[in-house]
Amino acid sequence: MSWLANLSKTYDDHAKVVGQFEMKKNGKEYALIPISHTTQTAHIEVHLNEKGNIVNAKVVEKNDGSTIIPCTEASASRTSAPVPYPLFDKLAYVAGDYTQFCGEAKGTPYQDYLIQLKAWCESPFSHPRVQSVLHYVSKGTLIADLVSRGILHVDSQGKLLEKWIAGPGDQEGKKPDIFNVIASDQSGAFVRFAVNIPGEPESRLWRDASVQQSFIQFYEMSLQDKDICFVTGDYLPVADKHASRIRHSGDKSKLISANDSSGFTYRGRFRTSRDAAVVSYEASQKGHNALKWLIDRQGTTIDGKVFLVWGSTSLDMPEPQEDSFSLWEDEDDQEALAGGDTTHKDFALQIRKAIGGFRYDGEYNSKHEVTLMTLDAATPGRMSIMFYRSLDQNEYLDRITAWHESCYWIHRYRKNKNDKPVSFIGAPATKDIAFAAYGPRASDKVVKGLMERMLPCIIDQRPIPLDIVRSSIQRASNPVGMENWEWEKTLSITCALVNKKEGYGVSLNTETTDRSYLFGRMLAIADVLERSALGKEEKRATNAIRYMNAFAQRPGRTWSIIQSNLQPYQARMGTGARYYNSLLDEVGAKLQLEDFTDKPLTGLYLLGFYSQRNDLYTSRKDKEAAAALDKDDENQLNEQGDN
Fold this sequence. Notes:
The chain has helices spanning about 1-15, 75, 90-95, 100, 110-120, 130-135, 140-150, 180, 210-220, 280-300, 330-335, 345-355, 395-405, 430-440, 445-460, 465-475, 485-500, 515-535, 545, 550-555, 555-575, 580-590, 605-640, and strands at about 20-25, 30, 35-40, 45-50, 55-60, 65-70, 90, 190-195, 225-230, 235, 300, 305-310, 370-380, 380-390, 410-415, 420-425.
């Protein structure tokens, strides 16, 4: 239960933000929910006055639908059984005229709702605004009031419409607002209440801290069953049912559940679920609510699988599945590391500088920890923790730093805030590694599986699985089968994966005599030579690119074909090809006679290809600029000497 204790501590550490809404990037709101509360998406908002009379009503926009609602253990775990929420709920529970407009409901949801609400209002912890809601819903006219105000719509027989069908008099595309926000028919609409009292700044009950505290105190009265909590070690009221809706408001999966005591679940090992574990109501509520908040705040979700990282002192930590580009907020720093001549030392200093900012947040002497958690649900009702690790913060940051310093290359597929392509040097994101290994059309199931497999490689510094590296190399060796942007992205990511093991670096290595690296350099020279002869207007692939896949499998035989096809372009360039020809001779001379065979090349040839090509495209103008600067410096020194 260490994960639950960790989450409960996180809840206590951030108790000051309980009930305070924050905004996601997509415009939706979220909050750290108080205990004895959960969240639901509301569709209709009803405004009442102090006396419990309806004043106004409206359809809630999708981005504003997230609502904190009081809940009991039974209502938080309800599925098909009619168990009411204490204050806000669907029409079947809060509307006394539901039968009139929708037909018979299962069980007695409205009566059960009124009994529970009355018990709250008659307790020592009653709240005047909740009494206003009770006074109104007791009238049993909610649906009629909403129909009269044009919020809900009925058919010719006076029943709520199940779906909207535009009539001949309706404007084309003019659909009532309620049908734009609700997936089912109108009878499934969720209703929340606001009570307008003159002089009171907050009328929304779902954001009124006094209403929330009133229900917490009321519900604590009913919690009498106590036992030793496995999480805290204290003698506290026990939770028999635990929260769902962990990943989103429609999520029914639970992390802790035991609902089949009459079947074969226990298999003779236990008599009751408490023989396995006992969790107090408070620990369960705090832990699950903190988990929901963290997922909303900074979790990454792929096909239902959640990847989550947070720190004990500072919640924001560098995420293992993100690339190096995300570490820098300053685009100047990102661009500064895009050059091919950047040394590993310069790059490592920049990485340590970017990650170093996470080390010293909070109190210096406190024990900092970072927690990693991966969640997924195999069935609609059961969720499991696929990966869980709690590390010292410095150790975690050291491992993240080691990953970014070892699995790096130049990448040119990211875009800045202005949606312009930018270059960066660093490690690729795990989602992009899936792109390189399986292509852009890989299913979310495949992508999330690879992301999970890569976590131990980053956190525990294990080798990257060979099947991922081999698949990436195979795809990068087949440029003809994809568009140029896709191949360039696949190539740079694959180079990063290969470089993780080989450690060659981005800069061209002119000293190595590795057979694969040298063959890769020769292929790059042939590519650049032919591309220079073709000119900018010609977009077709060069012979080096077209034969790349065959070259990786049978380099000796394929190089003879490429070289013979290269002769017309050498002749076309004339003396302009002298530099490329001499470079080919220089690289080829480093190959031993026994190396010039058809033995397949390793992934190292891609590093040689990329580095040589990058050097040819960038080094000439850089060297000319550097030579000009050196000449200016020399002139200035001579002038100073003369003076």
